[in-house]
What we know:
The protein is mainly beta. The strands form two sheets. Strands 2, 4, 5, 6, 9, 10 and 11 form a seven-stranded mixed beta sheet that branches. A four-stranded antiparallel beta sheet has the order 1-3-8-7, with no helix packed on it. The protein contains no helices and eleven strands.
Amino acid sequence: xxxxxxxxxxxxxxxxxxxxxxxxxxxxxxxxxxxxxxxxxxxxxxxxxxxxxxxxxxxxxxxxxxxxxxxxxxxxxxxxxxxxxxxxxxxxxxxxxxxxxxxxxxxxxxx
Length: 111
């Protein structure tokens, strides 16, 4: 069993920055790859970034160069630093490990 709790969402102006946090707890959470996904209204959930337990990283093309994912295994935390936010980045952002999901945190970008 793994529990995930996201935080850090909010309202930001276009061009601004936010840092999302995901607190992971449960069985061997630090051994898993952790991903950030997002879902905008009327759209499918999409992968944003993922980081393996060894530090290998994947970014969606749409966020490369603007978003940075990192993890602190000692604290079982994963972060998503989002810079140069665009209106199309507005969505509910979810943390994911295997089949487990957090409750999501809303990111709103005003133009």
